[in-house]
Amino acid sequence: MEGQIKRIGVLTGGGDCPGLNAVIRAVVKTAIRRYNLEVIGIIDGFYGLVNDIMEPMTEEKVAGILHRGGTILGTTNRDNPFRYAVEKEGQLTFEDRSEQCIENLRRRGIDGLVVIGGDGSLSIGLEFHKKGIPVVGVPKTIDNDLSATDVTFGFDSAVTTATEALDRLHTTAESHHRIMILEVMGRYAGWIALYSGVAGGADVILIPEIPFDLAKVCDHIRARAEKGRKFSIVVIAEGAKEMGGEMVVQKMVAQSHDPVRLGGIGQSIGQKLEMCTGMETRVTVLGHVQRGGSPTAQDRILSTRYGSAAVDAVMEGKFGHMVALRTPKILAVPLQEAVGTAKQVNPDGQIVKAAKSVGISFGD
Amino acid sequence: MEGQIKRIGVLTGGGDCPGLNAVIRAVVKTAIRRYNLEVIGIIDGFYGLVNDIMEPMTEEKVAGILHRGGTILGTTNRDNPFRYAVEKEGQLTFEDRSEQCIENLRRRGIDGLVVIGGDGSLSIGLEFHKKGIPVVGVPKTIDNDLSATDVTFGFDSAVTTATEALDRLHTTAESHHRIMILEVMGRYAGWIALYSGVAGGADVILIPEIPFDLAKVCDHIRARAEKGRKFSIVVIAEGAKEMGGEMVVQKMVAQSHDPVRLGGIGQSIGQKLEMCTGMETRVTVLGHVQRGGSPTAQDRILSTRYGSAAVDAVMEGKFGHMVALRTPKILAVPLQEAVGTAKQVNPDGQIVKAAKSVGISFGD
Amino acid sequence: MEGQIKRIGVLTGGGDCPGLNAVIRAVVKTAIRRYNLEVIGIIDGFYGLVNDIMEPMTEEKVAGILHRGGTILGTTNRDNPFRYAVEKEGQLTFEDRSEQCIENLRRRGIDGLVVIGGDGSLSIGLEFHKKGIPVVGVPKTIDNDLSATDVTFGFDSAVTTATEALDRLHTTAESHHRIMILEVMGRYAGWIALYSGVAGGADVILIPEIPFDLAKVCDHIRARAEKGRKFSIVVIAEGAKEMGGEMVVQKMVAQSHDPVRLGGIGQSIGQKLEMCTGMETRVTVLGHVQRGGSPTAQDRILSTRYGSAAVDAVMEGKFGHMVALRTPKILAVPLQEAVGTAKQVNPDGQIVKAAKSVGISFGD
Amino acid sequence: MEGQIKRIGVLTGGGDCPGLNAVIRAVVKTAIRRYNLEVIGIIDGFYGLVNDIMEPMTEEKVAGILHRGGTILGTTNRDNPFRYAVEKEGQLTFEDRSEQCIENLRRRGIDGLVVIGGDGSLSIGLEFHKKGIPVVGVPKTIDNDLSATDVTFGFDSAVTTATEALDRLHTTAESHHRIMILEVMGRYAGWIALYSGVAGGADVILIPEIPFDLAKVCDHIRARAEKGRKFSIVVIAEGAKEMGGEMVVQKMVAQSHDPVRLGGIGQSIGQKLEMCTGMETRVTVLGHVQRGGSPTAQDRILSTRYGSAAVDAVMEGKFGHMVALRTPKILAVPLQEAVGTAKQVNPDGQIVKAAKSVGISFGD
To answer: What span, in angstroms and rounded, lies between the C-alpha atoms of D74 and A128?
Structure first.
């Protein structure tokens, strides 16, 4: 099999994520140096695949990008070839353009396709695999909510960014005897909130997996104040849910998906906490700052390993698979297992237990 | 005169600011080591002065705080002894408690008072000076809008934090072909927006001093897109003003002062830009992250110089003065000159001109 | 069993390591909050155990230390109670003071001892365990060379510091067409060099586990220059070995252990590379910068989990054990398995293979 | 005059320095956008000028380089066209190639030359100016030892890097009760040592401008230890001088200029301090890490202003001048005034006085 592969394609799909360039670099270098392949870069994710916007990749093109955020290939998080938005006579309709993609790949002689993406992009990759395209996936998401891998690349960088913000808020909270709220990403899973909250010394962490009781949060903050700790740091995942109040909060979260709208849940909880504690409260919404910037050392290593292993997987014919970290090894696991279900924080797991042991409240 | 001073007090007033601890440390060390004085720390700013909450400072207490954000003395940005809020029979009334402060200082034998604060705190300091209290000021504000000094401490740190956020947004904007908006502090002066915008490679900077025309901002972003730069970074000071539309924007800004309310102007402009350019837009509101965290090297040096010079000024009897940087020297200047008028960005000055030369639009 | 434990001790031994304070904090908080124990801090590692220098720990004492480097308990990397250096009549002799330690622990009513340390300190802990002291270990070393755990705390921080240095050297190497050498810690294992080298985009990585041939290193650098990459970044672990030249290099390394002597191997290889390539070469020896500073987010989380789990292990009576990360779980493993053999880089493992795939030479 | 200038050249000379790319970017953008000029980039400094290695610059080429260390134009710190090293029949001789440079500039129609460099490169620039070449200089050096400007770009970044190293060493020094020595750049001027020492909370700073008495340094460290501060941080500029011992130390410094030789003065003083205090001592030599990496926000702003003002100066015909910061303005000052004499730290100036006030010893 190995001998037959001559040319592979690579694309990045979905939201921006620190480490994308490091993966691209490793794919290109491994393909050229180890296997003597040609590599075609597909521009702007599946949009480029549909519209045949591609260019040959060289070692020169990936020089110096290891530490850079973003993706030199570009990405979109809208375009799905199987349900491709087309404007016709002023109407937006959806068409299946997957055959066009397959045709583009065939015409260019691409024998293997590396899809770097999260749940959405990898699901599209799986559909292409089922139609006979030799796809290998690389698990990307700052949210870390992909099953089948210990961790996704980009997560450590997002946690680091949020932790730095918490370090900064800490000193200000303490000086002013205030409640400081940091709203971080995480609609369906609270990994960023949990990890940055533990690392940043938060007093309260609110995540989708553990519906919270606002009265308990207030009690916790007041109890701290009575013991002389007259400030509190609260980290809130954008998908956090109030007990018995899911409907209301969900609506708020839905709004916060709207491009420029801000601060659904952080602002809402902030107002309530200010009322029930009588303490001044301030809210920061980190937003896309979490998606950008230079990846951490750990993410650069993981990205390099993923990218390199993805090409190995292509050469071993492991199509329909995704590279995954099963510490300390990188394995190839079926995409089928990886997509469709979000990996969530275990409310009874060790990390939540440790967090509670050091005095963090989850409002439960 | 010098021989008569035995004991000085020090307080921090107003909003949190990186470098406060470095100033406190320098005041305490200089007073003890160079002049053999006693130092009394006044807790929580003017609140502690009114209520006589003070404690003796030692070198031990200021060990290891040079690089730490916040203030070990605590601060509030509400309490004005000359107009002190008191609740009486359920009613909030304002009383003059300045005599009580003076009595507290006299009873404790405090011969000199170092007030570390911004325009508000220094104005209070000036009032006390006029009543005979030997006050020396230290100019603090992340906004850099104090007259009479080249720069305030805390400003470089705030600019650095905002610049780091811009670095992160840059890669994401580029990967996604988006408009990324960063709303930074600055109600009356656009220094943080201007400096971080230039340092962070912004494409548009909107500041209070240069009312903007939204149509010109849209044109600028569209012109970039046509030249192949399909993303734009926009930095907005919270006090930015639309030409001829001040009233509306002002109202929005007013709301954003409300404790937990967020994203007045950033969100508002973001929605308009998305409409007029048709490009996806995302907004980040940095908020109090700008006030916290470890001060930059430059701010630690400036703070150390200010703190040390403030004690020198006390010993030289320069009361009613504020230490100020007139590069390369630290001088003592009358508080009267320093307070009352905000130092604003000169729309025709060199920095704005240089920013325009490298292609930044101010929407004018 | 659990009901009987009332008071535990905690000490930090060996070289400084980012995350020590985070472990101490988690031990103290978990013990007090979850189990209502008393905690005694033993000062300056085993030195304090021998000399009975201890103090009660409170939540107050560990407030605000999560993000701080160093250890509030102090540490030494010399004192072994089983072979304790004593000066007698001008002669240095070694005595067994372990009984004195045991007596100190008994008299103070310490029912469990948490030893935070590397191979040396944990070996001492194991010896105490064999003498009946209820010891639980926490695996600490920036070198990551402890068996039985996926990773030690402090390692990620050291890698991050070295990677930041490489990022800085990169731009300078490129501008000047130079060879830049960074010597990092790692006498017996090359983990820091390997990880930071991959993360920092090194061209050559030299580690103890893969003896290098200097001629091959020169060839690699020259080949790069011929392809237009007129600079190279070389990361060298202090214990790197030249093929067939171990004796000489060993001697050099031995010297570099000498307190203030510097740059054994980095300098030696630098001179040789300059000669064989004709390219200007510069050497940086990071030294103890790698041991200090605020721990990364990942290390703070790991340290918090370790510290909390160590107290759990004490309460579960798992003495003679060490907490260890077996991703994603923290387990207790016998100290016997953990100490004595260094965990080394596998020359044929996945990470080295990935590093070679992206073009890094190990000189083999 | 302005109308006649059509094409300018730009080169970077001397050692690498954070901010070089930011200056280049500002020169190119200002020339193209504001004045509609062509810009020619001269590769590898004066080497490229002699050998006519040049290429046209576009806005595209300088996109995304604002925050990047190094120089996209390359640099050398050896090549002087007026004394150009040539190998002839195995002998190294020096020739004057300045006419060749002038011819290259004329043939390419370059009407103005922006030289970005330190004392050496600007002196060459001045010589060319005297021969009729229209030169404008931009003051670059991490050492900040250029007269005629308040500050050079690159200095703040170098200070920041050294301060970060000190922050890391601090925690380790404290945990281990050690003396930690950091050797930083600065052969003739101690600016980096002074500023980073003040910012990093050093206990001792040794600089060329203040010859030190080792006995006084030992006394200071011992006095600290007696007061319970059992560690000390010592920052040493590579050109620091012992009182009455200049000859010896000078020799050592001279050796440290040798490409790969390391740790002249830091190591030497470390050994002596270890002996006289009996405290463990460790030495770090930061080396070229100080020259690399992303420039600070302040340096990016200053670089942008310098680059833009340099083109303004060209258009105003201010040849033989250098742009300089006279806070808050950028002016053009005669190169004659700027070169030849190093700006040194004033031993009796305010910053040294403030440093002493907070307890820092200079060994005098």
So the answer is: 46
CA–CA gap between residue C9 and residue C29 (Å, rounded): 13
CB contact under 8 A, A176 and B16: yes
The mean per-residue pLDDT over the stretch C72-86 comes to 92
Helices A350-357, C297-315: axis angle to 10 degrees equals 80
Q: Percent of chain A having pLDDT more than 70?
A: 94
Question: Using the beta-carbon criterion (under 8 Å), do C308 and A159 form an inter-chain contact?
Answer: no
Instruction: Note whether C180 contacts D288, CB cutoff 8 Å.
Output: yes
Residues 6 or more apart whose Cβ sits within 8 Å of residue C38: C6, C7, C8, C31, C32, C56
CATH topology of domain B159-290: Rossmann fold (3.40.50)
Tokens of A163: 């932790």
- Minimum-distance CB partner of D75 among C167, C176, C291: C176
Phi and psi at A234, nearest 5°, equal: -120, 125
Per CATH, the homologous superfamily of domain D158-288+346-357 is Phosphofructokinase domain (3.40.50.460)
> Are A16 and A68 in contact, with CB atoms under 8 Å apart?
no
Structure tokens at B295: 């001060």
**How close does chain C come to D176, measured CA to CA in Å?**
6
Contact A357 C34 (CB under 8 A): yes
Q: Where are the domains of chain B?
A: 2-153+295-338, 159-290
Is B264 labeled as ligand-binding? no
Q: Can you name the CATH fold of C2-153+295-338?
A: Rossmann fold (3.40.50)
Q: Across residues D336-355, what is the average pLDDT?
A: 95
Which run of H or of E encompasses C303?
Answer: helix C297-315
Chain C: closest CA distance from residue D194 (Å)? 19
Please say if D143 is a catalytic residue: yes
Which ipTM value was assigned to this complex? 0.94
Q: How far is B195 from chain A (nearest CA, A)?
A: 19
* Residues in B touching D66 (Cβ below 8 Å): 199, 201
Give pLDDT tens digits for C278-295: 999 999 989 999 999 999
Tell me if C2-153+295-338 shares its fold with C156-292: yes
Helix and strand counts by DSSP (H, E) for chain B: 12, 13
Q: Could you give the CA distance from residue A232 to residue A222 in angstroms, rounded to a whole number?
A: 9
B200 in A contact zone (CB under 8 Å): no
pLDDT per position as a tens digit, A217-257? 999 999 999 999 999 999 999 999 999 865 344 433 333 33
D292 touches chain C (CB under 8 A): yes
Residues 6+ apart with CB under 8 A from A352: A194, A210, A345, A346, A362
Pick the CATH number of C156-292 from 3.30.70.20, 3.40.50.10900, 2.160.10.10, 3.40.50.460: 3.40.50.460
Architecture of domain A157-292: 3-Layer(aba) Sandwich (3.40)
**DSSP 3-state of C212:** strand
Residues A20 and A43: their CA atoms lie apart, in Å, by: 13
CB contact residues (below 8 A), chain A span 142-161, against chain C: 150, 156, 159-160
Q: Which CATH architecture has domain D2-153+296-338?
A: 3-Layer(aba) Sandwich (3.40)
Taking each helix axis as running N to C, give the angle between helix C297-315 and helix A155-176, from 0 to 180 degrees, rounded to the nearest 10.
80
